[in-house]
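Step 1: inspect the first sequence and its tokens.
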Amino acid sequence: MYKSYEAVRRASEQFCAPLAIEDYGLQAAPETSPPKWHLAHTSWFFETFLLSEFLSGYQSPWPEYAYLFNSYYNGIGEQFPRPRRGLLSRPGLEQVHAYRRWVDDRMRELLADDGHADYPQVLQRTRLGIHHEQQHQELFFTDLKYSFSCNPTNPVYQECKEPAYRAEETSLPAAWQEFAGCDFTLGYQGEGFCFDNELPPHRVLLQPFVLASRPVTNADYLAFVEAGAYQQPEWWLADGWAELQQQGWRNPLYWRQQDGEWFEYTLHGLQPLRLHAPVTHVSAYEADAFARWSGCRLPSEAEWEYAARTCPVAGQFVETGIYHPVAIAGTAGIQGMFGSVWEWTSSSYAAYPGFSAAAGAVGEYNGKFMCNQLVLRGGSCVSSQTHLRSSYRNFFYPRDRWQFSGIRLARDADRCVK
């Protein structure tokens, strides 16, 4: 177990390696967090939910970190205000790395004690901590990208690997995959790790439906933009139209038009808009409007999971070192269900029938957010491949755009598509 723990911990630090010291405190919006805070918070998680609970006689050398790096666990205590995390110049980066080493040394000690009375719970909680850190690795990329995008010099996080990024010329043609109606068991079924919001498995009735063979591309979405759909309220939910008006949306988050040509800001710098790549950084409001304009709809999470169970967890993940979606390559059938972009669904993020959160503060991990958010599925180009499965439920507010969120179209089996 410690090898898996250590690999994830080292990955977080490796992702930070291209940063300048000035980058570690960047926080351009209240919903983002600085890289240094992510490094400290993930250590706080292991310290709080494992070392303090299971390591005999444990005392933290930095008790103030319980306040500084607690994200949202009210059962633990008060938290430093989220919108002000960028003001935490102290502790410095060197001290945060010392904190990580301290926690790692004690975790090694705890995991080595397989005779511990609560060892099965230690292992279960460690797996949760590992997946928690993988979630924050993804947030590291999305938060950093947003902060970098506010700099008019278009900072490059890392040069892109060749030739995979620039060689992309075509994408799979759009096609439709039919699925018969069925009585389907939704949710995680197995013996491995899953989050509590994937449980319990339960039966749902699916009507016949049709799912697009690939995510919506930039070319597809550019037609929506150029058709003036951002100025046409008939395609938009009321809340979406209000948000569009308030925020001045006219295109996806990082699209920029210069001298009549479209570009897109990426972690590899400002790039020409790649028409065959999946569109990304769109809100659920934009995804829903595009689907309506196309004569389609977004899939439910049950439809998405049913289709994804036939697909291997394969695609473009953070392990590729290409931190922006590339064109989906492959054969006929459903492609790109995992990696590249998270796919918005029409499903509200709510508890499954029979859901019960864990006792204590750790039960705040997922359950208390089951309100006013929508489910996304599949992972993205900055997700770890080992972190994903067909039952995985991500969730964000429908207005959110700074994640690598995209679109896959669906429709009822008896509906025509324009």
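Step 2: inspect the second sequence and its tokens, then contrast the two.
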Amino acid sequence: MSTIFRLRAKRIAVSLSFASALAVPAIAHADEPKKDCEPGSWFCGETSSGGSKELQPLPAESAPVEAKPVEKTPPPPVVVYQPPPPTVVVQPRDAPPAYYYVPKKAPPKKEWGLNLHLGGAMMGKGRDGNAGMAMAGLGLRFRPIPQAAIEGDIDFAGGRDYNGYRRAETAFTLNGLVFLNPKNTTQVYLLGGFGWSGARAIDDREGFDKVEYNYGYFGVQAGIGLEFRLSKVVALNVDLRGLIRGRVDDHRRRHPEFVSGDGKSTNTSGAGLLQGGLTFYW
């Protein structure tokens, strides 16, 4: 309790000293002779020696200003800006060409064929009037297009040759055929080619004294023929060919094949060939 009492006594003493400090200036101002102060005033202004300064009167109250109504202006119109449409340049286009339907043609069928034929050689009557030879053969034909074909033939011939000798001959030829009207049932064709052949001739005219000759030939041939289509796979043909050939064996100079009565000799010969047969296509 003593402590609390002491604190309160200190606070009272401080308050009294602060009040005394404020009262001293007020008493000093009261003792000054040249100041006009109203009784009971705390602060006084000094009076000038030249006289009192008059206070300006307050301006008279002005008449109230009548408020005029404010005219309301309508709001500006709403403007919506739209950009101009883009410029479109139309260029005329050429009309497409008319379409004509053309049916596709089927590619030509490639054909293979086996040709079997018989024929005979036309060489005249010969030296002794008994010349004549027959032949038989077969050929493999490839026809890539209807207008043309290639054919390889092997032929066997036998009989009496121009000299009257008994002869057996084997020939291999390679020919090209061109069909002039391939869409017809009866077709005309041209042929041409070349080939090799070998012959064995025996001179048996003197009875038992026989002399044997061996010949080798290279020749060319050309001709014309007809082919009759019996069906899509079978055709009948006949043609005529001309043949010319010369010897190519080693004995052609020492033993010429043909010797005339006046001593002239040659190893070149020719003949006509007539043959007909059947061709089987697939």
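Step 3: confirm your contrast with the notes below.
Residues 2-31 form the longest helix (30 residues). The first strand starts at residue 35 and ends at 36.
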